[in-house]
Amino acid sequence: MRIAAFQRLALFDAxxxxxxVLARDLAWAEAQGIDLALFPECYLxxxxxxxxxxxRRALSLDDPGLNALVARFAAGRTTVIVGLFERRGAxxxxxxxxxxxxxxxxxxxxxxxxxxxxxxxxxxxxWEEGRWRFGINICGDLRxxxxxxxLARKGAGLICNPINLMLRPHKAEKxxxxxxxxxxxxxxxxxxxxxxxxxxxxxxxxxFSYGSSAIVDPNGVVVAKxxxxxxxxxxxxxxxxQPERGFDQKAxxxxx
Length: 256
Description:
By secondary structure, the chain is an alpha/beta fold.
């Protein structure tokens, strides 16, 4: 399976512009034979720790506007994971959708959100892509080993980690390297491949992100790492088949 992690400039309140970038990148990904593409946390509308801003940006998965965007950027054969603020009734979630062939085929909600007003997700679905299974942990979820282990026990051989390390300067400096080591630790205690996609750039408040996108093998070895302070794309070919331990269940999507 060919995977790709896209490190992109952070956008804010610009879902249409984000969809244009996604459409361009995914057209390129399809031409390159990418099976699974990962984009950053809350990439579609822009990340925020402010509840009022997050609620204003949030979309429900059945929103016609969201579905129109997905139909535009996920039209091809490449499966894409992209982060967004999601509305479910009155509840707000920091989620990542899985989309392919013009439609949303699933979503994961962050189990340990730091964003004000976000409800913790409780489900840990796993999807199939070819001969591989993958699941999602969002950003700081990886600090709680059980979240990745739940996916590994369900047969995931790849854990996808959309992240958004746009922080105040002293925190951005503090978390840049631990962000990479967290992926290595996750790989070590699950035996899974791990890939992360981060944003770069800055916001109007002076926060910025180095960009901590990377792909890590099951032994914790970093096989690809994005250039800091710049947009980048990491492409890697996983083995044709994941370890047999990942195929003890039949369902294409397995929910708790």
